[in-house]
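Suppose you are handed a protein chain with no further information: no name, no annotation, nothing but its sequence. What can you learn? This example shows the usual starting point.
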Amino acid sequence: MANALEGRTAIVTGAASGVGLAVAERFLEEGASVMLTDANEALLAEEADRLARGGAPAARWCCDLREKLGVANLLASVADSFGPPDILVNAALKPVGGDVLDAAEESLDAAYEANIRSVFMLSQAVARRMIEARRANPERPGGAIVTMTSVVGARTVPGLLPFSVSCAALDQLTRAMAVALAPHGIRVNGVALGPVMTPALREALRATDGLRAAILKATPLGRIGEADEAAAAAVFLASSAGSFVTGQILGVDGGWTVLDPLAAPTG
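A reasonable first move is to predict its three-dimensional structure. Written in structure tokens, the prediction is:
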């Protein structure tokens, strides 16, 4: 899909590393102007400056998306740099561990703040800007919001209760927003990540013996996915190729969610 996002302006959160950075890179390749945002100021500056070095329309804004002022300042920076946003990719997904009997209340609060509150606040604010821009120019194409979530939102994984609950909430938030924003020409979809290589998964693989083998055994495609493969799904959902797709949670998991554990290969 060469130049699938030509002339579009995108905001990508979590863009200093992992899937968010891969999305930003892929969107730039597809012709979009991209505002990268992340809470890690040093890493964000390094990666955004690298992308912009060759003349790519990439800018950066470091902020805390859990705060209204941070969201407002981000949108002001986007407007100053590129104009109204056409696309939002919520890729700042934070894994939070804990199980039913040992999870602290603080872990649920942390998952809510990082994975639900911030996504809702930014998506709401961006949707309002999209609606304003389309009222000013009825010929303007509709907007698109894509939220990275996880397959654990629909599956039970011991030890990931706060994260699983927050991802299930993100899935429902995606569907609710899709219905509410459809009359305004804004499509809202999610990408449910399975075993895709992220900084968090890389650290887990280093820390947990046998985890890689267990993942490969449970994944029909027999490998761990790359961040760019999740980015490709975001391009599809944000571009005209996905123009009749809304309210969907697209699994990028190598078939992980369709395999019954009892049927996993033994050798």
